[in-house]
Amino acid sequence: MSPSLDLSRWREAPKGVGYRRWTIISSGLRHLLRTRLFITLLFMAWTAGFLIAAFGFLLSQSIATGGWLETAATHMGPRVEAVVTAIGGFIVLFPDIIIGGFFTLVFWLHSFLGLGLCLVALTVMVPRLIASDRASNALTIYLSRPLTSADYLLGKLGMIVGVLLLLWTGPLVFGWVLGMLLSPDRDFIVYSFLPFLHALTFNGIALVVLAATALGVSALSRTSSPTVILWMVLWIFAGAVAKFPLAPVWLRRVSFSHNLSEVRMTVFRLDTALADASASLPLLTEQMGDSLRKAALSAQAHDFNGAMMGLGVLTVLSSVVFLRKLRPE
Question: Are 155 and 31 in contact (CB under 8 A)?
Fold first, then answer.
């Protein structure tokens, strides 16, 4: 039986360059989702999102008339009932300080967890961004027409954005939205919205810095070991050394973790929230007021402009590195 040759035209609709970009993004994320480490990170991240909603629900129940906290206090004696009533009165009288300060603290703490989880995930992901493609000469295929270097770059950036959405931004937005849906009135939305915007602002700054740095580090080498070592040096070693009081200024600028800590203090304004609480809330003992004032001083940023300059230089240098390396070899 002689073989037949079908020369009919291909009639399927072209999927376009966007489909190829999505293929790069989805293949990288699928690889991460198969690993036990990333699944553990996902569990921790979304548990934190539920905790944000739970903390908001607990705070809302402290002032809700007929809420479970008020109902439970009636069965615990007059002293507990008086304490719960006083807490509810404080929140009603000072909603901006208590509700705003509460969510500022919650989102500030969550930023440590979200950033930490993303850094761990990127440690696994960095060798697979550009280094593995350089080692296998896959750039020759990726950068062939009609897929350009911009399309390839958008695909790799999409992988990093996807990781941050899954581990940080997604749980943050989910926790706040769910907490507001469970709140008894709109005061919680009004007074928690600004801290929520601060959290998203810091999230966006970290996204830009981490994306550029990860791509730059991954593009420096064709093998995974030097890439991971350099990433760990920039993240852990430089961050640890930058905490020493006598550390040189240039070393602090190199550490993106130290610079992001400075940015966190400025963006979240935790020092302002603590100072307002110590100055405005009545019935605070002198010792409690002093503790809040000391905490406010320790939460102040010391060199925000220098930190932003360091992050900007690191972002630009990393961008130059991966753009120069982004060509077939």
Answer: no
